[in-house]
């Protein structure tokens, strides 16, 4: 797949998603960014992409609602004629200690981290199935998961339950959409400190990473770009970008 002229929908564009949008736009891709509350950030990214010479749009949507997810995909296809890549980047990460758990914590995490990417991917997959293949590929879907669904830590139970469901969904969707559409997952560790993290919090995480540093948005986006450009022979795969955190602190001492 070539980036020049490709149509790419990215959900969420506040940090990693924004950098990805700018990078792909600079390469000539047509970019659609969805936003829920970060209108100014999304619109600024659109302006920068257009200044660089490519086309871009910002779409307001609450993707936890299936109808709004479908409408976002439909808007992209109506504007540019096809959808080549969906990157499900939007996510909500919230600490929820076990003794303080409320039913609403589960509902919110499932809605944001499983229902939203599910609805968007289903709408995108259906649209991609209706379009002609380019170089044997009708489209690509990349979901953003979390390395910790295979090695959970405390205080994030609803979040990890949702991301674990997204992991299974990714692999099941890859089966459903083969052979024309590739579906994969990128599972980052910390690439930007979450809101509310102190320097001490961040340092504690870094001490659990064998490479002894946090990642950057580029570490994640380099892999996403590879999955778009570098191969048409990968589907149903999960790629950790975690500095070795999955391995624990048993190396690097």
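Sequence proposed for the structure above (253 residues):
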């Amino acid at each position: 797949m070539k980036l020049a002229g490709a149509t790419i929908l990215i959900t969420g564009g506040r940090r990693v998603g924004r950098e990805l949008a700018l990078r792909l736009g600079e390469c000539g891709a047509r970019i659609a960014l969805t936003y829920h509350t970060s209108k100014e950030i999304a619109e600024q990214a659109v302006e920068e992409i257009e200044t660089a010479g490519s086309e871009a749009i910002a779409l307001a949507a609450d993707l936890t609602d299936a109808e709004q997810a479908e409408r976002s995909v439909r808007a992209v296809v109506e504007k540019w004629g096809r959808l080549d890549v969906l990157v499900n980047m939007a996510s909500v990460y919230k600490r929820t200690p076990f003794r303080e758990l409320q039913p609403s914590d589960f509902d919110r995490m499932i809605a944001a981290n499983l229902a939203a990417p599910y609805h968007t991917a289903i709408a995108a997959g259906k649209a991609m199935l209706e379009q002609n293949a380019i170089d044997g590929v009708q489209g690509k879907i990349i979901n953003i998961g979390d390395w910790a669904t295979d090695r959970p830590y405390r205080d994030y139970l609803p979040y990890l339950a949702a991301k674990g469901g997204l992991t299974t969904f990714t692999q099941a969707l890859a089966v459903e959409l083969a052979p024309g559409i590739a579906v994969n997952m990128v599972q980052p560790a910390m690439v930007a400190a979450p809101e509310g993290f102190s320097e001490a919090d961040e340092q504690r995480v870094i001490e659990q990473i064998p490479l002894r540093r946090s990642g950057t948005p580029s570490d994640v986006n380099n892999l996403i770009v590879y999955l778009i450009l570098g191969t048409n022979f990968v589907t149903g795969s999960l790629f950790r970008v975690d500095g070795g955190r999955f391995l624990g602190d048993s190396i690097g001492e």
